[in-house]
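tool_call: predict_structure(chain=1)
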Amino acid sequence: MGLKSFLRDQGFITDEPGDQAKSSANPDSGKETAPAFFPQQQAAAPAGDTTADPSFVTPLPKSAPAKDQLDPTFIKFFEDELVKANLPGPDYFEFRQSLIKTQQKMAATGVVAPEVILQAVLMSFEAQDVSRAKLKEAALHYKDVLKQKNDDFLKGAAVEKNNLLQKRQSAVQSHNDAIKKIKQQLEQLEVQKQQLTDSMAKEVNQMDVDKSLGKEAMEKIERAEQLITVAYNHIQSSIDSDISRL
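tool_result:
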């Protein structure tokens, strides 16, 4: 899914004229948004609770401000991009999937020790002639892919913000021109001064409205930047954590 379609589906930008039909026919709409390979860790479990996530699931900050809270939709966005870049054969990508699936299966039997789960998955991959070194090498590859997608996303967000700014500036300039023309008419047509003064007041009011046009959309784009950065850091941290154990 492209950046614009993704942001539109998540409500960070609004449809432009002619885009409604395209967005309503978007094949990606309604897809599962829960992260599959880099899930968020749940809140800390009470002492003695054996259902807590193992340590390779990146923990959430205990007191993160609202702007730094992870949004699973943005994590899923990165996951989908990694799926597209998945290399042939078993490597870190499949290793990460196996970690999550094995965790779920073993947790159902009461086994949640992260090292036990990790070793079980490592043995499975070693049996397929996939060493720790190969897993690390592949993990670094996916980190590069992730960084490129993050850079592309932020560049795209910057373009969207610039487009919104240009639209606002164009609207303001249009109303400034209208006001200037009305002032000239006031000088030439004193008889119609009151009527034109009323018109100018309306234009001024409309200009103020148009100045704010796109402000909310701009704030949403900036919010998207914050969320994508948090999601990016979350996945990078997860990969680094996995690498440190390999």
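agent: The longest helix spans residues 132-188. Proceeding to next step.
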